[in-house]
Amino acid sequence: MTGPTTAWRYRTVPGPQQTERRRVTAAFAVLLLAAGCAPSRSGSLGPAPTAPAPASATTSRSTAVAPPSTTTSPTAGSSTPAPPTTGSAATGRPETLTLELWYVRQGQLVPTRRTRPATVATSRLALAELAAGPTRREADAGLVTLLPDGAEVSRIVSGVASVRLAAATDPVTARLRQAQVVYTLTQFPTVRRVDFGTSAPAGRADHADLLAPIVVTAPGIGDRVTSPVTVTGSADVFEATVNVRVLDAAGRQLATGFTTATCGTGCRGGYRLTLSYRVSRDQAGTIEAYEVSAVDGSPAKVVAVPVTLTATR
Known about the structure:
Layout: H1 16-37, H2 87-90, E1 96-105, E2 108-117, H3 122-132, H4 136-140, E3 152-157, E4 160-164, H5 171-185, E5 193-195, E6 214-218, E7 224-225, E8 229-235, E9 241-247, E10 253-260, E11 269-275, E12 283-292, E13 299-309
Helix pairs in contact: 3-5
């Protein structure tokens, strides 16, 4: 009698070495899976470092060496070259200094300007230029100086400049002379008042009555101007209205306009106006600032500033 057939399956029992290999393989698979799930940490390393140029390939116009944190260099391939460096630029100081000098015309203060090589002794330079007097063109416009040679600043403390100044023969000249010094020195931020040793220190407000009703601070006498030209100054006029016009060499009006000062009719305020003109050639011209007469509409309190008008294109 035949019974049911039984199938036998044989299983090989792994040895110790096979078991160890399987453990290593499983651990390695886990590491690979963890690496694939981790966030990316890739990124740019930036441009490769560039070797410095040889000494013969660059030139320097300054012996000063700026610290690395403040130096800049043009980008490679840029079409814009780096600006030239001069000794004064490398040290952060300007090469020139523009001074505002206050002279006298018909008993009133009138400003003009000078551009000179920069110096740390700005007050000394200003007084020396003031004593030297006006240029030929300024003198032709009626400007004079009442300041004698030898005026100097002895010290500046807490905004007060102490000035040694020769005594004048009459009080009118003495006051105008002092006003010239006060207005010239107080253009600097370190000076607010001036002490002449004869009375309390004086500021600009103490001599404001010596200003003309309309003062033009720019452009200055003899300046070359281009179109459009900006006219600035201060004024104490009716309803604060200041009129300005540009005249050519023949006295013909090229442009005109008006503006309102920040204060007027009993107080002085600043004004600013820009005018455009056209001329075919460089020529002498005049910038006039004035008040329109309430009586007949004619120009009154006129201030004329002779300039050179450059040709317009």
